[in-house]
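Readers outside the structure-tokenisation community will struggle with the description of the input data as it stands. What matters is that the chain and its backbone geometry are given together, residue for residue. For illustration, here is how one protein appears when written out as sequence plus structure tokens:

…
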Amino acid sequence: MKEVLIFDYTKQSPVAYVPVASCGGVACGDDCEEKISGLRVVPPGHRLQATVSLLLPESEYNRNLGVFQIRVDFISASGKTLASSSHPCMLQFKSEPVRLLLTFLKIAPLVAGYVSESETLNLKLRGFTEGDMPTACLKVAIEQRAEYRPGAGIPEIYDASLILESKLPLFKRIIWYWKKTIFIWITMTSFMMQLLFTLVCCRPIIIPKQGQGRVLQVVVRLETVSQHRVENVASADSMITMKKGFYV
């Protein structure tokens, strides 16, 4: 799933919430006594991978800001934090001559508005394995470095989004990747079983009795011909024996 992040800049560390099932219990915190029921979206045992995408302007403020940090909290329906993952990030460094050269090369698209002086940061955070308690909401926060006072050191952002992916267990992943091969083998096996059943149980329909009678007649005729041949050979042998006795 992909969701657009809308940060609340009225707080010292801007935060944005992404509902997986519901974010109704976020305000309760860890000491929430109210039990909020919600549907499980991600089955237990599946590994979750969160990717935060930030579109930042290449302004002088962002270049001088340096490193800041993105934190993602996995929150249950009751507001309890199940897991937390953070990742430091910053704009890619470009020296002054390189920036001037790139600006000169892109002067026409920049003036026309086809491109902008911005940079996209894609942050893949450490995964989290879904347990017995389902994940109901994700909390994304922008944190400044320790040297800044509260509320300072926050980057300028054009746009932000979060992509949440679920990784299947090993056995289900094998079935998913080999689904076409498994489907072909199951189809071939089913066809062979049906063909064998048809040949065994529906043989009179496939080979009619009239055809069987003709086959029997041909077999009888062949047997009669072979018997006549045997009798002819025996009579010929007897004649030869009689002739030999006569001459003797």
Q: What stands out?
A: The longest strand covers residues 47-57. Residues 33-37 have pLDDT under 50 and may be disordered. The longest helix spans residues 209-247.
